[in-house]
Amino acid sequence: MFQTFEDKANPALGIERAAKLREELKRRGLDGFLIPRADEHQGEYVPPHAERLLWLTGFNGSAGMAIVLKDRAAIFVDGRYTLQVRGQVDMDTFEPKHLMDEPPARWIEENLPKGAKLAYDPWLHTIDAAARYKKAAEKAGGELVAVDTNPLDAVWADQPEPPVAKVVPHPLDVAGEAASDKIKRIATALMSEDADAVVLTMPDSIAWLFNIRGADVPHTPLPLSFALLHEDGHADLFIDERKLDGEARAHLSGIATLYGRDDLGAALDALGRAKKTVLVDPATCAAWIDARLKAAGAEVKRGNDPCELPKACKNEAEVNGTRAAHLRDGRALTKFLAWLGREAPKGGVDEIAAAKKLEAFRAETNELRDLSFDTISGAGANGAIVHYRVTEATNRPLKPGELFLVDSGAQYRDGTTDVTRTVAIGTAGAEERDRFTRVLKGHIGIATARFPEGTSGAQLDAFARMALWKSGLDYDHGTGHGVGSYLSVHEGPQRISKMGHQPLKAGMIVSNEPGYYKPGGYGIRIENLCVVTPPAPIEGGERMMMGFETLTLAPIDLALVEKSLLTAEEVDWLNAYHARVREVLSPGLDAETKAWLETATRAI
After folding, report:
1. Can you tell me the distance from the alpha carbon of 396 to that of 137, in angstroms, rounded to the nearest whole number?
2. H-type helices in 145-303, by residue range?
3. Where do the Peptidase M24 domain residues begin and end (predicted)?
4. CA quadruple 548, 552, 554, 559: dihedral sign
5. Which of 335, 430, 448, 573 has most Cβ atoms within 10 angstroms of its Cβ?
6. Domain 11-155 classified CATH 2.40.320.10?
7. Domain residue spans in the chain?
């Protein structure tokens, strides 16, 4: 299996480990330390040896940070994890804070003693983040100090070794563009930035640019590495060469010069000695790289990672690949939902059993490379924990009269999927049906949106919330995130959220996932992936409009739909969506599942 359900959280360990870290800080003459949930590449998923926040605190969410001072400590998490953090972390050792409402920089200003030396590992913080914390420390009358070696690593006795997973070429039939052509395209863009070179630090950008994939982090096929791209089109790849076999070397030999991972510093020094202008992305590049370039004499220019936007705009082969992946995935998910409909009302199905069964159905496709994240399998009150991860300790049975939320996804060679369905186990109550239908209205609002070029996700976000807002309800996460092509399930720069200011462009894949969560009661989320369509005319209209093509194919639970709350247009959309699901998924399904699908997708 690609996921486990061990309960690794032990809040008591945080007491002992924080004490050891404080002893090490004292030995080094330091008064505090910043512990982000990050590695040198600032990605969402990190390898085991970089799970420093988890080791120290017990918190296993995908975003967060801790600050340890001599006499106090805090842990910062966003709205997805405010419930989870209290169950995983010792609250007497680490005071929980909301990452947005009470950001770390403000906490530093208010709690760092005057004259204190607050340490940070410059490999684990972006240029922007380091600048914020430096300013906050100075406002408090203290100092932010970069360390050469990480003090937490010094007390983590059984820290795993860095990964050396094999690099695999990503074939042209699914990539849709040769790596050599991508390199020329990005180098041309680099010249327009008046830069001599760019440092690429995001592994998904490197994987996309060089048409390679790997397995260095959980659930995302990334080869951890760094790259330099020069304005003349020459590329350098810095990677642990143990990851490269003959096939990978042959693929890379014509498009990049290969160096060891530890050769990056010398290459940055050479750029500095030559007085080159080097582009770095301050939102993703480690502060260490910025400091090394400046110390060597380079002119550092700040700008966006030049691969990020081209990577987000999928080409025809990538869009066709993700359509094929969703067709395959939709059949697996439909088999699961049919099984769930038969077995859950009988009792005996719990969250772990459901997650295992869903993964098994995906494995039956013989195309599954990995899950795209640990399955969120939440029954009853656990469904209200937005990024809940079931463990043997939290495992809960699926009970009649409750809701079950399952958010899952898969990595296939031709695409990445992410889909959430909320299912009534038995008969749902009136409140649950009302909330579900309001979430569905928001989902349809995004799915049917038409908008002119230049429209951002922030402008569309309210479409998903309006029906909830009218009843005084809301949810505390974004409505949609970008998704990669056999890459990260969370990809930028596109998103549908209050902070989503990147204009949506044709070929971008985004999720459409409004929700509602009642702490202690239940959670509801309906998620499909969509691809942004090119501008097209509307009959009788005056301007070309973009829109969304829904990619995900899976039934939406009609037992939770309160038809009286839907408009005629919304009913038409739901019926048309279900008719399409039934038509395209039925071929290849067994007779029992096909019969279930007929009922599940009936017109209302």
Report:
1. 44
2. 151-155, 172-175, 179-192, 203-210, 246-253, 264-273, 287-296
3. 322-533
4. negative
5. 335
6. no
7. 11-155, 168-307, 313-596
